[in-house]
Design goal:
By secondary structure, this protein is an alpha/beta fold. The protein has 8 helices and 5 strands. The structure holds shikimate-3-phosphate. Shikimate-3-phosphate (S3P) binds next to loops.
């Protein structure tokens, strides 16, 4: 079983994923890092030189290959991974999906000086965050097994809450198998 962290850019998937994997003695896997290694360039350049469609195809291939082989791993996926059903199907089959949530204001504050997110390289990044979240929220909330807010909290506190909620999910999982776990969502 794996733990898969989803959520919008800037919700803390990388930091929380690393801390959670250490706490659980799980391996940590970052899908965006594998994409950059495979393509030998940063994501911002992949978008610029090859386009978002190309990036999404590489992302889906790496999600399929990596997540279907992973075990006892905490895996962070990029903020757009939940948009494709085939990605969500692989995630659901191979792990418990934890959504890290944050408000647009908090996300903006965290990312306002960031230069690595191609989708936010626009004149009004705050507006873009609001509009992307409004189209994506349904995908985030529909695909997850549990939700943890990362607004104005310490990373340690967030990790504790995930572990507590995971213990409940694992009990459900052992009792009802994957289907039982997924049916008793959130
Ligand atoms: C994206 C999020 C990014 C990265 C790419 C696209 C998105 O990952 O995959 O820039 O569509 O939200 P993070 O969520 O780790 O920033």
């Amino acid at each position: 079983m794996n733990i898969i962290l989803t959520g919008f850019m800037g919700t803390g998937k990388t930091l929380i994923g690393k801390m959670l994997s250490e706490r659980l003695s799980y391996k940590y896997i970052d899908i965006d890092t594998i994409i950059e290694e495979r393509e030998k360039m940063p994501i911002v350049d992949i978008f610029k030189e090859k386009g978002e469609g190309y990036f999404r195809n590489v992302e889906s291939n790496i999600i399929r290959e990596t997540i279907s082989q992973a075990n006892k791993s905490v895996i962070s996926v990029g903020g757009g991974a939940v948009l494709r059903k085939m990605n969500v199907d692989v995630m659901k089959k191979n792990g418990i999906i934890v959504l890290l949530a944050a408000t647009p204001e908090v996300i903006y504050e965290r990312l306002k000086c960031d230069t690595t997110r191609p989708l936010l390289k626009v004149n009004n990044p705050k507006e873009k965050i609001v509009s992307l979240l409004s189209t994506r929220n349904a995908y985030y909330y529909d695909s997850c097994n549990l939700i943890v807010s990362t607004n104005n909290r310490t990373p340690e506190d967030i990790v504790e809450e995930i572990i507590l909620k995971l213990e409940i999910k694992w009990t459900e999982f052992r009792e009802g198998g994957v289907e039982g776990c997924l049916q008793q969502k959130k």
